[in-house]
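Please decode residue identities from the backbone states below.
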């Protein structure tokens, strides 16, 4: 298939041209606080991790009540709804669908009754043995309302919690394969746990004498909570009237946090491995300037994801930093697709070039990644139309060559432009004068942690958790061997 045909197919796709975030989870144990309202604000801070649905579950010691719906956090909740969600413990979830379609039944938290009471569960991640587990539960008489693997986790815990919910979680974790960070509320407990590799993040914080959990530390900041530490891979953390206690349940050789959290997913004001992501991304830009220098008049970011790295590139290279495009921050995900004749409108809705700033300038345009390449191509076209003399694109991560199976909605392998084109071919497809990527060594070095503490599968195909054959087929990976750590 020639490049022109590929281009036409890609422009007509409904799928977004970047990795889509996972989900955001939040939990709080605070008997004397308005836990539903605090959870609402926590979810607001995590809105970037999912925009399809939102939900909150609260416990008043006697009952666990869940309210959830499709839409953004402020679309789902209002003062009237929040005033009905009273209790001393709450969890929340904001969702982007990775397993299971975007229907109400798949919204979270998941509500489940079991022998000793009721639980509500919110999950970030993706299981790779969900088909096997769903079949096992179905054969045991379980019925499913959703197609998400989060309900599978809730079903397993309910089945195994005859002695206690802690024992139910322990037995469930022994069966789960894949990535999961989970928060649970019962009548009297807040519980959080992570998979044994720690692929998806989950942090622990403190608000006065109370405890909070969240996918990112930025959710602590908004409510005035203090970050304590990351919940460890394979750890269960329980908060109840006796305070905080934890158990290490599943052992692993190494942590494998998704490195794309550092590249793009997490907010720049969050901490991962105790490092501020803005600083890590700034360092990515500095290293990128050394690895891929360019002669130019101005460094501009693709807002907002490329800004921290662009500042670092400018600081290291000595090329002035400038704003070359303005982002419309009120444009969310849209399913109204422009006609082929007006396809640039889709990009102009979000980005508008500053013609007087970039006209006749040689630009270094910094972005975090290239997935399919179609959006980058459109942005370059806009900058050319606005009078840019040269465009040198610099990417603060390596080429994305492999799909993710652990809770990130990625393209299939043959849709990832770097899996079928080399750097020069991608440069020509996008239409830039030069193209440079940060090396994997440079990316990892920017985090301040060793490479063995990350999952880097989207760049190198080394999957820390073995991928079953049927899951590889779903992302068209069967034709190549899947490497494991």
């Amino acid at each position: 298939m020639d490049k022109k045909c590929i281009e036409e197919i890609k422009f007509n796709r409904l799928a977004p041209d970047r990795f889509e975030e996972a989900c955001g989870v939040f939990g709080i144990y605070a008997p004397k606080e308005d836990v539903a309202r605090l959870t609402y604000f926590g979810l607001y801070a995590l809105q970037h991790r999912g925009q399809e649905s939102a939900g909150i579950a609260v416990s008043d010691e006697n009952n666990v009540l869940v309210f959830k719906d499709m839409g953004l956090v402020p679309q789902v909740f209002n003062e009237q709804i929040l005033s009905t969600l009273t209790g001393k413990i709450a969890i929340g979830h904001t969702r982007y669908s990775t397993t299971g379609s975007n229907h109400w039944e798949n919204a979270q938290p998941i509500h489940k009754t079991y022998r000793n009471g009721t639980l509500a569960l919110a999950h970030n991640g993706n299981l790779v043995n969900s088909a096997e587990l769903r079949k096992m539960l179905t054969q045991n008489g379980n019925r499913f309302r959703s197609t998400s693997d989060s309900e599978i986790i809730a079903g397993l815990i309910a089945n195994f919690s005859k002695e206690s919910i802690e024992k139910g979680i322990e037995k469930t974790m022994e069966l789960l394969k894949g990535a999961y960070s989970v928060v649970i509320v019962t009548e009297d407990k807040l519980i959080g746990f992570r998979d044994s590799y720690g692929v998806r993040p989950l942090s622990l914080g403190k608000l006065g004498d109370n405890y909070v959990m969240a996918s990112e530390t930025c959710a602590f900041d908004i409510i005035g909570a203090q970050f304590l530490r990351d919940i460890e891979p394979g750890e269960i953390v329980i908060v109840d009237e006796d305070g905080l206690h934890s158990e290490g349940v599943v052992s692993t050789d190494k942590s494998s946090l998704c490195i794309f959290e550092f590249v793009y997913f997490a907010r720049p004001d969050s901490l991962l491995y105790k490092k501020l992501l803005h600083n890590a991304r700034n360092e990515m830009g500095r290293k990128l300037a050394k690895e891929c220098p360019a002669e130019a008049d101005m460094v501009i970011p693709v807002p907002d994801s490329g800004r921290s790295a662009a500042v670092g590139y400018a600081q290291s290279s000595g090329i002035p930093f400038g704003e070359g495009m303005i982002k419309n921050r009120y444009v969310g995900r849209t399913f109204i697709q422009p006609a082929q004749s007006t396809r640039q409108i889709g990009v102009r809705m979000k980005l508008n070039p500053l013609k007087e700033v970039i006209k006749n300038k040689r630009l270094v345009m910094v972005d975090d990644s290239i997935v399919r390449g179609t959006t980058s191509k459109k942005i370059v076209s806009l900058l050319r139309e606005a009078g840019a003399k040269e465009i040198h694109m610099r990417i603060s991560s390596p080429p994305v060559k492999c799909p993710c199976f652990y809770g990130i909605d990625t393209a299939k392998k043959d849709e990832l432009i770097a899996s079928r084109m080399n750097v020069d071919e991608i440069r020509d497809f996008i239409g830039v004068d030069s193209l440079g990527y940060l090396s994997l060594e440079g990316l990892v070095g920017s985090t301040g942690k060793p490479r063995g503490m990350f999952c880097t599968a989207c760049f190198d195909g080394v999957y820390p958790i073995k991928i079953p054959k049927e899951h590889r087929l779903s992302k068209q990976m069967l034709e190549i061997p899947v490497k494991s750590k």
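Observation: Confidence is low (pLDDT under 50) at residues 1-15, 333-338, 477-485.
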